[in-house]
Amino acid sequence: MSKVKDQFYIIRGHYYTGFGITSNSKERNVDYWLHGKPIPFTHVFKGNHNHILALENYLKTGVIPLVQLDIQEKTHREWINDDEFTTDDLLEIVKQAIIDRHYDIKLVAVDYSFYSLIEVKNLGNEILWEKKSTSSTKTLS
């Protein structure tokens, strides 16, 4: 039985903007760290599994200039095939798709990296990731 992939992330790698889906942001972010310097996810969204899959499929339909890299037999990495295309550009497309397509998906983290001390809190209908520091707690939004 496969894990439910209910999270969508945006990442800015060393040369390209990319995105993906996962069931565990921490484990997935570790995968990027294993390839060199840690790379945080610029944005992490969480929501209905089917809506997360639909969002990913929508982005793969030609909405953005995309290239898939075959890393292993069954593994694909999606990267934006345009050096000028920023994470902010992708974020705006994702936000608009969530609104237009009525996806049950919410932004849950900004600048997420597995090596940060992170605590999840539910506040009403919003899920926030808080980065803990020794001096103070700052809510990322």
Query: What's the shape?
Result: globular
Q: Give start-end ranges of low-pLDDT stretches.
A: 117-125, 129-141
How many E strands? 9
Q: Largest beta sheet, briefly?
A: 6 strands, antiparallel
DSSP helix fraction: 25-40%
Could you give the distance between the termini? 34 Å
**Radius of gyration using CA atoms only:** 15 Å
Q: What does the average pLDDT come to?
A: 79
Domain count: the total is: 1
Helix and strand content put the structural class at alpha+beta
Description:
- By secondary structure, the protein is an alpha+beta fold.
- It has one domain (7-114).
- Helices cover 27% and strands 38% of the residues.
- It has helices at residues 25-33, 49-63, 87-100; strands at residues 7-12, 17-22, 41-47, 66-70, 76-80, 105-112, 118-123, 126-132, 137-139.
- It has a six-stranded antiparallel β-sheet, sandwiched between helices.
- A hairpin with a 4-residue loop joins β8 (126-132) and β9 (137-139).
- The longest helix has 15 residues, at 49-63.
- The protein is globular, with a radius of gyration of 15 Å.
